[in-house]
């Protein structure tokens, strides 16, 4: 992200670091607010409501013409992705109450493997096509999360989209 903001958006290194900080701060702030939101809204509804913000954030980063747009894109990415991990872990805990440690361990291995593969792919893409591909990877990642989350939510029938209480 820092290299993308510096090289592709031609912003100074301080601004690039602040962009990354904005992402991390928005992710943390959104997760703090998540506790209040999830008391009033079904978990899957919260994720579905936030993912478009993440997609918009990647589009804004791709089209950013200045500092404000870069900061806004980073903030939307953080807010949009914030509920995914906690909600997925809550579903895993509900599905496997007697094996939560094992289930969480497997989920973390899958997440870290995916993260490593994505970082490797972005590195390859950056060396061959430049850093302009990073927002495309972010957008594709958000779409992949939506597809996988949608498939996973269907297996959790009490909290799935067909739940009449939502």
Describe the structure.
This protein has 166 residues and is mainly α. It is 81% helix and 0% strand. α2 packs parallel to α4 and α3 packs antiparallel against α4. It is globular. The termini are far apart. The C terminus is likely disordered.
Mean pLDDT: 87
Residue runs with pLDDT of under 50 for 5 or more positions: 159-166
Please give the count of helices: 7
Helix content: over 70%
The SSE string, one letter per element, is HHHHHHH
**Largest sheet at a glance?**
none
Shape estimate: globular
> Rg to the nearest angstrom?
17 Å
The rounded distance between the terminal residues' Cα atoms is 37 Å
- In terms of DSSP E residues, the strand content is under 5%
How many beta strands in the DSSP annotation? 0
| Class based on secondary structure composition and strand pairing | mainly alpha
Give the topology.
Blueprint (H helix, E strand, L loop, with lengths): L1 H6 L5 H28 L2 H21 L3 H15 L2 H12 L4 H30 L4 H22 L11
Task: List its salient traits.
166 residues, mainly alpha, 7 helices, 81% helix, 0% strand, globular
């Amino acid at each position: 992200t820092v290299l993308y903001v510096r090289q592709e958006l031609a912003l100074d290194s301080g601004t690039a670091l602040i962009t990354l900080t904005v992402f991390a701060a928005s992710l943390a702030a959104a997760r703090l607010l998540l506790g209040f939101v999830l008391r009033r809204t079904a978990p899957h509804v919260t994720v579905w409501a936030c993912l478009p913000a993440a997609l918009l954030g990647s589009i804004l980063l791709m089209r950013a013409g200045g500092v404000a747009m870069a900061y806004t894109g980073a903030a939307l990415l953080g807010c949009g992705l914030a509920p995914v991990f906690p909600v997925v872990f809550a579903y895993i805990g509900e599905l496997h109450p007697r094996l939560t440690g094992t289930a969480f361990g497997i989920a973390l291995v899958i997440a870290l493997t995916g993260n490593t593969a994505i970082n490797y792919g972005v590195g390859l893409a950056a060396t061959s096509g430049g850093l302009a591909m990073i927002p495309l990877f972010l957008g594709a990642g958000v779409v992949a999360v939506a597809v996988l989350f949608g498939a996973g939510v269907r297996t959790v029938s009490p909290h799935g989209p067909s739940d009449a209480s939502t």
